[in-house]
Design goal:
The complex is a heterodimer of chains A (268) and B (163). With 268 residues, chain A is mostly beta strands. Chain A contains 2 helices and 14 strands. Helices cover 13% and strands 46% of the residues of chain A. Classes of the chains: A mainly beta (268), B alpha+beta (163).
Chain lengths: 268, 163
């Protein structure tokens, strides 16, 4: 008995040190937190709309979150994306790469947005804003494909192509928008650029399409994503899963609520 | 002489058998044909290998749910009505109304292609019907195109129908 208690003492001490170190390490590398936002504009059942999606990545004070590598946003069923009249043409990745969104056919653009990234210059955290254009790309493996062209002029001149796909989703969702986020190097020796905010719209707001009628080219605004005439119970659910370079993941949810004046139309 | 008579008889039997075979073959080949071994007097199940094409126009939509209808031509001519959920996979139900009754079923298809026209291909199942097709059952393939500008559909179906 005496001998076992003699060995148990140092063992417990070592265990305590190891556990404390692990806890401190976990606290130092706290997983990033994410908040997700979703909106319809206009927000009217049965109407054509533009979907707004946004997320904000949080990190402990004074820290920059790890680089985001993938964002997956599941969207509600019964959103008429195929009936939106958006993406009637396609833009090749090579065109976007060479000439940016202005080089793409106007009828391939499906939305716009902006992103905010952070990078570390020594002890200083610098913020960079970038504009986003979303274009319809050639389908990939039978799935609707999109390309996000992200262009930020300074302090790091950045143009990146971020491929995205509309994929099937199970459960309460109609599909999922899967965005692959490439790594963007900042300055030598420093971590990659970290996206901390992103907001995009998918819909006709701010877009002009063109149609050839006889010899005339007519400009028009595409229809937009058709909302159902009935509101699902609990509103329109959105859910996001965000994967980071260090292997951590964060999840967030959002709901576009049903308006009180339209509750009579809610599906039982 | 006896041998000649025998040869004539054999030839006559052969001709009769061949004629009978041709008549049976013609009956089997025609559509609808009777399923093998149907008992006389009982309601025989008919099997129809049908290929139809439907040109459908937009009627209404709500969210991703589309209602189209139009004319169907082919082995089952009539009108067709389709409720389609245009998600990442196209799923839906259809009714073909013919002079002898209606045929109902469901199907799913994977869309592909980019631009103004979305093509799709998948499978369909016939689940029932009315009139002559009350006991309709069957399965087949479907493919077609969806016009993203005016929401019209061209659907080609092919398969076997038992009723």
């Amino acid at each position: 008995m005496r001998s076992s208690s003699r060995t148990a003492g140092p063992l417990l001490g070592v265990l305590t040190v190891v556990l404390t170190a692990l806890c401190l390490s976990a606290a130092a590398r706290a997983d990033p937190s994410v908040s997700l936002g979703a909106s319809f504009s206009p927000d009217r059942l049965g109407a054509r709309t533009t979907i707004g999606l946004s997320f904000r990545i949080g990190a402990p004070p004074g820290q920059v979150p790890p680089a985001l590598t993938q964002a997956e946003v599941r969207y509600p069923p019964n959103l008429g994306i195929a009936l939106s009249g958006l993406g009637l043409a396609v833009c090749a990745p090579s065109t976007l790469d060479a000439a940016g969104a202005s080089g793409c056919p106007a009828n391939s653009l499906m939305g716009r947005g902006k992103a905010v990234a952070e990078l570390r210059f020594g002890a200083q955290t610098v913020t960079e804003s970038a504009a986003i254009s979303i274009a319809r790309a050639p389908d990939q493996e039978g799935h609707i494909a999109l390309l996000l062209y992200v262009s930020g002029p300074s302090p790091v001149n950045t143009q990146i192509l971020s491929p995205a796909q509309l994929l099937p989703a199970g459960g309460a969702f109609g599909g999922r928008l899967n965005i692959e986020v490439p790594l963007v190097a900042s300055v030598p020796g420093a971590p990659d650029l970290a996206i901390v905010q992103l907001s995009v719209t998918l819909g006709p707001k701010g877009l002009t399409y063109f149609e050839q009628v006889g010899r005339q080219t007519l400009a028009y605004q595409p229809n937009g994503i058709l909302l159902p005439k009935q509101c699902p119970r609990g509103g329109f659910p959105f859910a996001g899963t965000f994967t980071f370079l260090d292997g951590s993941r964060a999840r967030a949810r959002s709901v576009v609520p049903c308006h009180r004046r339209l509750r009579g139309l809610r599906r039982g | 002489m006896t041998q000649q008579l025998r040869r004539v008889r054999v030839a006559a039997i052969c001709i009769a058998l061949a004629g009978g075979y041709l008549i049976v073959a013609a009956q089997i080949g025609s559509a609808p044909a009777y399923a093998g071994g149907a008992v006389a007097g009982a309601r025989a199940a008919r099997v129809l290998n049908a290929t139809d094409t439907a040109h459908l126009h937009y009627v209404s939509a709500s969210g991703s749910l589309l209602l189209d209808e139009g004319k169907a031509s082919g082995a089952l001519p009539g009108s067709m009505r389709v409720h389609l959920n245009l998600g990442t996979t196209f799923t839906g139900s259809f009714t073909i109304s013919t002079s002898g009754g209606s045929i109902t079923g469901r199907g799913s298809a994977t869309p592909h292609g980019s631009g103004a026209y979305e093509s799709f291909a998948g499978t369909l199942t016939v689940t029932g019907g009315t009139g002559r097709y009350t006991r309709a059952r069957g399965h087949g393939k479907l493919y077609g195109t969806f016009n993203r500008s005016n929401y019209s559909l061209v659907i080609k179906t092919t398969g076997s129908l038992t009723y």
